[in-house]
Amino acid sequence: MPEATPPPTTGVPHETVAAVDLGSNSFHMIVARIADDHMQIVDRLKEPVRLGEGLTDDRRLLPEVAERALACLGRFGQRLREFPLGSVQAVGTNTLRQLRPATEFVERAEAVLGHPIDIIAGREEARLIYLGVAHGLAAGPERRLVVDIGGGSTELIVGQDFTAQLRESLHMGCVNMSLRHFADGKVSAKTMDKAQLAGAIELRPVRETFRHADWQTAVGSSGTIKAIAAVVQTEGWSEDGISAAALRRLREALIGAGRVSSLDLKGLPDERKPVFAGGVAVLCAVFQTLNIAHMQVSDYALREGLIYEMMGRHHHQDVRERTMRTLSRQYQVDEAHGRRVQATALGLYRQVGGPWCLGDARYPRILAWAARLHEIGLMVAHSQYHRHGAYLLRNADLAGFTRQEQTILAALVLGHRRKFPTQDFAALPPGIRDCTKRLCVILRIAALLHRGRAPNNRPRPILQVEGDNLSLVFPDGWLNQHPLNVLELEQESDFLKGAGVRLAFK
Fold this sequence. Notes:
Layout (H helix, E strand, L loop, with lengths): L15 E7 L4 E9 L2 E10 L15 H17 L8 E5 L1 H5 L6 H9 L3 E3 L2 H15 L6 E7 L4 E7 L2 E8 L3 H8 L7 H23 L5 E5 L1 H12 L7 E2 H14 L15 H18 L3 E4 L4 H13 L4 H12 L4 H18 L9 H11 L12 H11 L7 H12 L7 H5 L3 H20 L12 E5 L2 E5 L4 H4 L1 H15 L4 E4 L1
Parallel strand pairs: 1-4, 4-5, 6-9, 9-11, 13-14
Antiparallel strand pairs: 1-2, 2-3, 6-7, 7-8, 10-11, 12-13
Helix pairs in contact: 1-3, 4-10, 5-9, 6-9, 7-9, 8-9, 12-13, 12-17, 13-15, 13-17, 14-15, 15-17, 17-19
């Protein structure tokens, strides 16, 4: 069987695509037309759901907030009803990162939206924000600091051209800062000082790194920063963007008003008022901590970054592939052996992907990456290396990967050898449990057939499946020439019984 590479993702197979951002303050959706490798935004929808204010201490959503969010997604879903699978990229950020999976809110949200929703890590959110902002700015060689204040988190990025070089996600945003320091609606010098100090404490671990990152210009994105820019410019305090002096005047104006309900600032919409003081406190802390004198404002952010990410994958510029190559080098993985396991795994996948309902375009790529990195844990220790590898892949900052993709990847590496980890697989979200188990069975067989590590060993078995009953048929004489493989297949048959899978071979 010749060595194979992962099939390309479908990327942007459609002329019209959409991106949905389930933020902690607002839900956003953009619809864009792709033509000649350019994006033209044709529709925007936004609703101030304020998901973050409904997150309870035990990481559940208040019922009224959950219903408000689902109603919004139902309206978005109506707009997206005719969009084919793969043409919509929907992501959840800070609040959904914290939400307890057992609430099944994401599953309900997917049902009303009509498209999958991926939860992305904070640093991945930062990378996508930078990608969107960079495409919205005039091309230039300077290094940029990008700041995005969301409802539940603030992302800081330093990058050049379209590449993010430093990425951080901090647990402070306009919603949680407003709830923590301005919940009673009062704004005073004391409460504002306390909120800014809390922001400075959050920034402290990354302060020196970002101060000395040699950036030349600061750019802000998100609703909070755009609202602040609109106010300071409408009030005549800043001609372009946000200056440090204008931000100080805005701070004093908030304190002078005394209450959120009393705010009478030109350019500030009513829907933004409940979280405005918290957002101003965060931005004041960022300006002061990072010594920012002036900040430009970008209309592009996470949503646009998602569209450009889809376009990049369509043109085989998938950052996930670069991430995999970096991991392979960093952990000194035997790449030649991994490629051989990958070739066999993909050959088996092509035979059973249809009958096993593994049609998602992501699955063969994740299977291929798991095959290439199934021995990554050897860098930690040989004993239980599959568990070490799974831990690394589950918890590492993998650029380009959603949490769901990392969960599947880690599960495949965990389950590729020894006793099948049935309890770990039972703990996977219901929507990916069965398909991950079947991908893992494919990987187990491929890894087993290459256990001898012979560079010229290219088995060509035929894999037939009927439910959880598997039959491996080898070329005439192959099993007689590989008695060790026979013993290993017998052992594997016993392992798979524990997972409810029956393996026969001849």
